What does this fold into?
Amino acid sequence: MALEQSVIQDKLVATFGEDVRFLEKTDIFTILIPSHLIVPVVMFLKNDEVLRFNFLTDLGAIHYPDNQPAEQFCIFYLMHNWVDNVRIRIKTFISGENPEVKTLTNVFLCANWMEREAYDFYGINFIGHPQLKRILNMDEMVSFPMRKEFPMEDGGRTDKDDRFFGRTVSNKPVQDQVPHEKL
Amino acid sequence: MLLPPEHRYAKMIDARKNEDGSELSILNLGPTHPATHGIFQNILLMDGERILDAEPTVGYIHRAFEKIAENRPFYQITPLTDRMNYCSSPINNMGWWMTVEKLLGVEVPKRAQYLRVIVMELARITDHIICNSILGVDTGAYTGFLYVFQFREKIYEIYEEICGARLTTNMGRIGGFEREWSPRAFKLLDEFLEEFPVAWKEFENLFERNRIFIDRTVNVGPISAERAISYGFTGPNLRAAGVDYDIRVAQPYSSYEDFTFTIPVGKSGDTYDRFCVRNAEVWESLSIIRQALDKLPEGPYHADVPDYYLPPKEDVYTSMEALIYHFKIVMGEVPVPVSEVYHAVEGGNGELGFTLITDGSRTPYRLKFRRPCFIYYQAYPEMIKGAMLSDAIVILSSLNVIAGELDA
It folds into this structure.
């Protein structure tokens, strides 16, 4: 029998109470948790007899420089239950000045390089990581290139300015925005 | 190689002196050595011919695709995906288009979906041809490689007929293909389906019961299912360990649910099993292509989405509406919702995933590629621990680590 979304929701609320928020209207069932809960929540999702999210599919960071200082980085984790074939996305927001979160390397071996990648590009400190150093960029690099303030091409270009095309762009995280009605 | 004295291997070498007076040594495997089939370095700590420990360094051809993608409209991101797993670029292209279509809610016609399945399975075959025949080369059998490699050429001719390019294909559009497949493409496809199975059978016979090959591969670099899952293995490498996880079945896309095929699995997850799983997958791919050709429906080869799909060139010169659409699409000025999607396809190496986050601008706000190679390559040091140096080469090529995908 397929694992229902409501079952996951009930179990998480029963264990972690009001700390876990659930996001509506997403392609994959998404939960939002405070960053100190990341290891217990992932362990719970992995080890619970019913939930059985046995596979960490992906892990990545997102930079939201326009958010308030405490929520400038988002880390997303994508987990997959292969028995019932259900995916879940976990998001947590962390501070921009001192971005740090506990490591998952003790739960999933594959988190090692994924977290190193997130560190390399966003400078997120994964507390307890066994070998947190740059992975794709060279060790001598000092900046974190995937942060939005890191320029990629000539900053003087104005031909692709959104205002000239009647576009309004919002840099808020997806869940805080009103979903588009109809294009 | 001279190691800095603070390196942990330097300390290990100092600390240990063997009874016969020999010492541990350091060997640099790569970054540019023909045997590694790509640019990645491993610093090996060796005791004679045995590997005690390894430290991989990746990133030699890192090209910052995720950063570039944040500054490109969707259609300009396809050429970036080509260059990830360049042995099977159509799968990457189609995976990317399907992600965008999921975001935009574009419904793709059945015919285009079937054509996509055909081209993706062809790409899987090229991927497995390369991996398995190169594995043959690494164990000393050059003939098989030369023999089956001409069929990769034939597949490239089919690509050329479909999209005009061979290696980095940049194939397709949002909603389907850029043009209808020509009769010559179908003719080449028929010829391929006629000739290739004969050669592939011979290739299999050359290796699967070959004493030398078996000695070189059985029990070399095994990984248990449990470890493989924890290390994030997907694709043939995971299936060789006995787990039948395949996205084509788990979460079918592009009408894969219309076809019957089996997922070949191995048992011990060693090099030989990986080889056999890939061989068997080629047969399944051929069967899927035949089924798709048999059932290929009539109809349009692209979705009717003028906002995203370039109009025919003749119309651009004669009709105002087509000109406007053409201009808007080329400038990247297409309507984009504020949303977040994840889409995964079964790439040549495993689950190739795209996390696409948009904020309403013409470019992605964030695009994250789940690159299967990158994730499972971290198990390599563990897999070669205690093996011989020559085994390390064989294990590396059986994992099918593609430098482009590893480093993105």
In short: The first strand of chain B starts at residue 25 and ends at 29. The mean pLDDT of chain B is 91.
